[in-house]
Amino acid sequence: MGDYALTTSKLCKYYGQNQILENVTMSVPSKSIYGLVGENGAGKTTLFRILAGLSKPSSGTFSIMQSVSLQELSEARRRIGFMIEMPALYPDMTVLQNIFVQQIQYNGHKDASKAISVLQIVGLDTQQNKKARHLSLGMKQRLALAIALLNDPEILILDEPINGLDPMGIVEIRELLLSLNQTNGITIVISSHILSELEHIATHYGFLHNGKLLREVSSSSIPQSSDGLEGFYKDMLEGGK
Ligand SMILES: Nc1ncnc2c1ncn2[C@@H]1O[C@H](COP(=O)(O)OP(=O)(O)OP(=O)(O)O)[C@@H](O)[C@H]1O
Q: Which residues form the ABC transporter domain (predicted)?
């Protein structure tokens, strides 16, 4: 995969007059868990949407697994599992049927054994016959993650994947992500508001603030003190580091 799974160079995005991303130059090492930290409105989702091909940058370039051309990028994206927005679920279909819909859209056919295996990975196999309308938010999050895993991705891009999960659910997703990274070698890019949670799993961080990537560091640069990542981030925003 090369040294970097994803890179961006001087990426800018405007909506009308508003500059949302400003010269974002980012490098996500292969096989890392890269925590993207940033306040509400910092531009995290916008950046992920560009990588996913859901939005175009106003200027700048990016690469996914060394692919840069439009055609190569669309191939490379097939090797990424995205969880950016909640996938459109059919409320009157079951969990399993919703997985089948995704498989048919993506590959043209359904694959029941693969569907069950991703539901097992995210701990939803016991709920496979439940209608989507009856799922809790946390269960929907797991289903979105299951969908992102359907095509054995080499990279996972996860926007706030633990939003809405209870503490036990958060621990389970954390362990799942660690295992996907360590056992399957999947590079994971993850945004979360819960810095203490990112701290449990991230090997690298990028700090996005007002559309600018202030700094990238490896987790070894974060002090092991009680306010570790939170304190580091606060000091950085205050210009202390
Ligand atoms: N389609 C759009 N049109 C206009 N402005 C947009 C659009 N999408 C996002 N924005 C604006 O871009 C800015 C960045 O939004 P974005 O969703 O990328 O931030 P974020 O870091 O993901 O925040 P959050 O953590 O709240 O999800 C916000 O000010 C938002 O209002």
A: 6-235
